[in-house]
Structure formats: C-alpha cells, structure tokens
C-alpha cells in the first residue's frame, strides 16, 4: 500500500484542490463562506463548477450527483452525466453553476411525515459549500441539503446547519459579554465512534432475519459468548485486519480522518473512531464510513452489521457522539485548563450544558430513539434510558466549592510512576464513566446513547439547539448586569443549584439509581414509543422555532416519520419471524423428531432395545412443536388485530410494542428452546456459535 500521505484526500475537492484550481478572488470568496458561514456568492458558482468538473474528469469521472441525506437514515443520489450535445452531433463535457447550486430530485417517494402529498413530487437539493465535494465510485458527489417545493426541510443536513448557526449566534453573544472581541465564529466539533459486527458472508446469506432485518430474531445462547472478556482490545485476526486496512485506505482517500481501530467486547464486534472535525463534515463522514464499511466488507467475503443489537446474549453496538465547542481562533471552549476553578468562561459554558441537558432530557432521549436501540439501552453495555451527566470528582468539587463560596484546590493531575522504568504521565480532568449517557471526558462531552446504525445528525441537532437556548438565556441575563465579572459566579452557581438533579457520578446500571432518578424527578422513557410524544410538546416546539432550527410543521413531520419507522421495523421483523418459523424451524423440528421416531421403531424391530432417551426427546420435541405452532398463530393474530383496530400512528406504534413484540418474544423463546435439541446438520440456518466465531 502506498504512503497514506500520498493518497489522503485525493478524491476530495478540498482546500488544496481549490487553492490550486480557482482564481484567487473566487477561492477567497468561497473560503469566506466556509469559514464564516456567509451566503455563497452566486456569481462565483460557475467558476467553481467548471474547476470542479475539470478536476473530476481528470480522475476519470463522467457523472455527478447531489448527495443528500433524506429521513431514511441513509444517503441518496441521482446521477447525471457531464455530457451535453454540441454542434454537428458532437458532445462537450459541461457543468454549470446552476447545476452545482441546485438540483431537482423526485421528493414524492421520500418520507415527509405529511408535509407533502404523494402526488406532490418536486423537491430541491441545494449545494452545501461547507462540506467538500468528493468522488465515490467514479461519480462526483456534491453534498447538498434537501427541501420540499415549499422550502420545508426533508433531510438531516438542513436542520443541522441551522442548529450550528444557532449555537454560533448565541455563543458569540456570550463571548462578547466576556470581553472576547476577536472570535468571529463558534463551531461545534464532533467525533463519532462507530461500532459494528463482521460476519462471514455465506453464513449471513443463510439467515433471512439478518438479510431482512439486520439482526437475529432467533438464536439460542452459545456455549461461549463474551464471558472471558478475551475479545476486547485483543489481537485482530488477519481476515479482519485485511478488511480494516482497506477500509482505512478508502476512507483516507475520501478525506475521512479514520484514526483508531480495535476489537470490541462482543465476539466479531469491532470499532472505528475518527479524529474530531466540524460537526457538519463529521456527519457526512460518518455516513460515508457506514457505506464504505459495507462495501469493503463485501470484497472480503464479509458482511458488516450496523444494527444496534444483532445478537442476544452479547453486547450490541452504539455510536458514541463526542461533542465540543471551539472558536475560529482554535480555542476549545470546553477545555477546563490547568485550574478549572478560575476558568469562568469554561464554567459558564459548562453550566449552560448542564441546564440544557436537564431541561431538555426528553429531547436527548429522542435523539437516541429507535426500534433497534430499544434492544440495547439499559443493558450492561449501554447507558440506561434515564438521562444524566457525569462530571467526575474534580469538576464536581469545583462546582460545590463555588456554591459554598469557598476556594477549590485542584487535585494533582500527574500519575506517579507505576514502576521504576515507567514514566509519570498526566491524568485527565475526569475518569471515564461508561455507564453515563452524557459524560464529560476531558474537553468534550460523550453522548453514549445513540445507536450504531443512526445518523449522528439528530443527536447533534438536539445538543446544538438546547445549548444554544441556554446560552441565549445567559446572554439575556448578563446583558442586564452592570458588572459582568461579578455576575458570572452567581449565575453559574444558581444554574448548577437549579439543575443539580441531572448530575450523577455513580453507576447508572444500578437499581438504586433508577429509584434515585425517580425521586429526583428525572424521566425514564424506556422505549421509543414512550419518548417520541415529547417531541411535539409545546416547550420543545417553541424551542425549535425560537432557535430557527425546525418549524412546528417540520417537528410534527419528524414525529410522524419516527413513529411510522418504528411500526414498519417491527412489522417487517414479525413477518420475517413468521416466515422463518413456518418454513424453516417448524419443518426442521418435525422432520428431526420423525427421524428419531423411525430410528426408535427400527431398533425395536431388530432387538427390542429400550429407547428411553430417544422417546423422551421425541416427546419433548413433539410438545415444543405444538407450542411453536401455537405461538406462530398468536403472532399472526396479534398482527391482524393491531392493524384492524388501530389507525392513529401513535396508538398503532404502542400496539406493536405491547402486543406484537410480546408475541414475538414468546415465539422466539420456544424456538430457542428447540434449537439445542435438534442435530446441528438438521437445523435450518447457522447458529450463534457459527456466526460469532467464523471470522
């Protein structure tokens, strides 16, 4: 493999390519848009488009696409060639500024949550110049926003950009009040750690549940899972290492800052973590990462699973969203410095985040809500559904000292040598609390709840918006003060005191915390269906409208889409479960029991042998087969009942959660009891042991 420095970003129309190919005036104007968030000057679009086209053609590209992120959770693209007719039947390669800035896809088949009627087909994609264009599989991909004919957001990027602008406005207000006259822009930065499973492709193809649903709907507990804790950070197997090597190379060519790779806790589970970058670009890069994981895996006869809980009995996969704030001067606003107790700017922003998470804990829960993630949250692998903040002992002591009006003496942050030959090293401001949903980890917050298959746009939209709202409140308060410096400690103390309930440094998995959280008045929204109705609460609609992130119609549309997606996911899983149970598990069990009965008859015919063990097994399988048929019928009845009785999208989602999921659980329990009783060669699809230990 070539030196990665030679290839990094070679498929990206990035700053290097623009500086080389654009006239100085055009380059300067475009950089102003990227750095300062200014509107793009339409007069330069044609120059940029022509340079972008020439660059792409030199790399063998013939088509371009507006690459966007509709409410499907994946990306979308419609390809057009650069070819245009010319005189005398000749052709030229053409790409205009208008084609760069705006595209028109069919919006009728994308989720709109009622914003559009099915027959209203027109939609628009609009170039996002703050995210670099790139080449993917021979096509020039132009990152774009996606909106309806009436201008309503139908995608993830539009509200994300709005939320980034909102927090920029409010953070600048606060910084000006603190005497900062140099910062011109505040950006949010994100690093999304991506967990995933790798399976052998041939085994995957034999499991209809994996193919249709991305997770196993049946599967008895294997003899070995993750009990020995021998997979986490273990030596990476050659087949997986080859996949990781190629994945890194492909991502680096696309400018994705893939940095860390390792084995995760579960067998066949792994993680990739990038270097932090601007949130908008980080979201685009995470979408590319998920797509490239799947494509590169195919080349290695593997399949990459991104479902939050592909297997029972072992840990599922999350996507830890590391979030921070930085100025255009390169300062991290969440860096406590050497003495956090005297860093009033840091403490003020920290207080704003504490207040935001407390007041809008419902929205943060919604940011991680999905049918798949419901299987993962609350287990001994992911935070519970109760939102809380972990600050660690030092920062907690600083805030407590401020509240009491006493001085806080920071602890020594150097770890003494562990052995004579080992050097001393610096300690972070906080330890890591893996059970906390929202933990401060040195100079950023780690939101650990999002699921592995989700776009990280939604968590960042929520975090940006709620923090912007509290910064707005702080700015309003401080603008009324004659002496801002004197007012700061009081405002910080009052805020922390008012929102103390959200702070918890202990074990979030413990039953004691569940009881304590209830006593504190914290929400415990255990399922997606519990959480989603809070999306349209008046306070939340007011928040989004005030910060100009969503209109009320856009909020309600997303609420409808999320509920509909929850119901559709369970519906597909239930139908898949029925198909597997009726056409694979039931026949296999019946056939195996029949063969056993035949063997018993043959033995008795020859020597009147006693066959007590075989008879006992046949009887047990016969009884379980009857129960299996009963549970199949129950699931079919539950599906028919909920779809006949419920019409409202919320009541239908609740019925799927309460009735269909319950019937699915009972059917699985019987099938999983049968599996260890049937000979391996007679079982119709690969078992957990086959799947988890074959790579």
Walk me through this protein's architecture:
With 695 residues, the chain is α+β, with helices and mostly antiparallel strands. It has 3 domains: 4-155, Roll (Ubiquitin-like (UB roll)), CATH 3.10.20; 163-217 and 228-550, Creatine Kinase, Chain A, domain 2 (2-Layer Sandwich); 566-692, Four Helix Bundle (Hemerythrin (Met), subunit A). It is 48% helix and 13% strand. It has 23 helices and 19 strands. The strands form 4 sheets. Strands 9, 10, 11, 12, 13, 14, 15, 18 and 19 form a 9-stranded mixed beta sheet that branches. Strands 1, 2, 5, 6, 7 and 8 form a 6-stranded mixed beta sheet that branches. It has a two-stranded antiparallel ribbon with strand order 3-4. The protein is globular and about 100 Å long.
Structural class: alpha+beta
CATH homologous superfamily (4th level) name of the largest domain = Glutamine synthetase/guanido kinase, catalytic domain
| Major sheet description | 9 strands, mixed
- Helix content percent band: 40-55%
What is the average of the pLDDT values? 91
The tally of strands reads: 19
Name of the level-1 CATH class of the largest domain? Alpha Beta
Q: Please, how many helices? A: 23
Gist of the model:
By secondary structure, the chain is an alpha+beta fold. Helix content is 48%, strand content 13%.
């Amino acid at each position: 493999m070539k030196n990665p420095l030679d290839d990094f970003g070679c498929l990206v129309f990035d700053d290097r390519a623009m500086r080389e190919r654009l006239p100085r005036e055009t380059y300067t104007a475009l950089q102003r848009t990227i750095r300062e968030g200014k509107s793009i000057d339409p007069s330069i679009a044609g120059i940029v488009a022509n340079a972008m086209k020439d660059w792409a053609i030199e790399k063998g590209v013939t088509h371009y696409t507006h690459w966007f992120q509709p409410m499907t959770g994946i990306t979308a693209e419609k390809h057009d060639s650069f070819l245009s007719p010319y005189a005398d039947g000749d052709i030229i390669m053409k790409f205009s500024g208008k084609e760069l800035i705006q595209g028109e896809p069919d919006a009728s088949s994308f989720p709109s949550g009622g914003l559009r009627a099915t027959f209203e087909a027109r939609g628009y994609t609009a170039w996002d110049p703050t995210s670099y264009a790139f080449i993917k599989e021979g096509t020039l991909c132009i990152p774009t926003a996606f909106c309806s004919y009436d201008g309503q957001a139908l995608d993830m990027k539009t509200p994300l950009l709005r939320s980034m602008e909102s927090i920029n406005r409010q953070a600048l207000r606060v910084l000006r009040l603190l005497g900062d006259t140099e910062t011109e822009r505040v950006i949010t930065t994100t690093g999304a750690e991506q967990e995933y499973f790798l399976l052998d492709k041939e085994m995957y193809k034999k499991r209809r549940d994996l193919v249709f649903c991305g997770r196993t709907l049946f599967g008895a507990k294997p003899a070995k899972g993750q009990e020995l804790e021998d997979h986490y950070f273990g030596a990476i197997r050659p087949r997986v290492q080859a996949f990781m090597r190629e994945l890194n190379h492909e991502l680096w060519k696309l400018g994705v800052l893939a940095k860390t790779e390792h084995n995760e806790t579960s067998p066949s589970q792994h993680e990739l973590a990038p270097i932090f970058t601007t949130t908008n670009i980080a979201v685009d890069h995470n979408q590319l990462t998920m797509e490239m994981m799947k494509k590169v895996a195919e080349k290695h006869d593997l399949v990459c699973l991104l479902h939050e809980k592909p297997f029972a009995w072992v840990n599922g996969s999350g996507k830890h969203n590391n979030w921070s704030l930085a100025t255009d001067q390169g300062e991290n606003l969440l860096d406590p410095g050497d003495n956090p107790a005297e860093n009033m700017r840091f403490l003020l922003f920290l207080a704003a985040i504490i207040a935001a998470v407390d007041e809008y804990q419902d929205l943060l829960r919604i940011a991680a809500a999905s049918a798949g993630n419901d299987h993962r949250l609350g287990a001994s692998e992911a935070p519970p559904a109760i939102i809380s903040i972990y600050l660690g002992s030092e920062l907690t002591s600083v805030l407590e000292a401020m509240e009491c009006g006493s001085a806080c003496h920071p602890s020594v942050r150097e770890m003494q040598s562990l052995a004579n030959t080992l050097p001393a090293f610096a300690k972070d401001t906080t330890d890591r609390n893996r059970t906390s949903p929202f933990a401060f980890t040195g100079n950023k917050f780690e939101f650990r709840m999002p699921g592995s298959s989700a776009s990280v746009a939604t968590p960042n939209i929520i975090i940006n918006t709620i923090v912007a709202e509290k910064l707005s409140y702080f700015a309003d308060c401080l603008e009324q003060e004659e002496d801002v410096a004197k007012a700061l400690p009081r405002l910080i103390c009052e805020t922390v005191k008012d929102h103390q309930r959200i702070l918890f440094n202990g074990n979030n998995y413990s039953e004691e915390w569940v009881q304590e959280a209830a006593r504190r008045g914290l929400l415990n929204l255990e399922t997606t269906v519990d959480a989603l109705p809070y999306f349209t609460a008046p306070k939340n609609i007011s928040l989004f409208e005030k910060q100009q992130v969503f209109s009320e119609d856009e909020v309600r549309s997303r609420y409808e889409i999320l509920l509909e997606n929850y119901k559709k996911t369970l519906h597909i899983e239930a139908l898949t479960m029925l198909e597997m149970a009726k056409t694979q598990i039931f026949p296999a069990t019946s056939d195996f029991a029949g063969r056993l009965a035949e063997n018993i008859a043959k033995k008795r015919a020859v020597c009147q042998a006693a066959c007590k063990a075989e008879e006992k097994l046949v009887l047990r399988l016969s009884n379980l087969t009857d129960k299996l048929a009963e549970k199949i019928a129950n699931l079919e009845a539950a599906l028919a009942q909920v779809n006949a009785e419920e019409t409202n999208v919320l009541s239908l989602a609740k019925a799927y959660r309460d009735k269909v999921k319950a019937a699915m659980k009972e059917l699985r329990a019987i099938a999983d009891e049968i599996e260890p009783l049937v000979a391996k060669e007679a079982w119709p699809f690969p078992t957990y042991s086959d799947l988890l230990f074959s790579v």
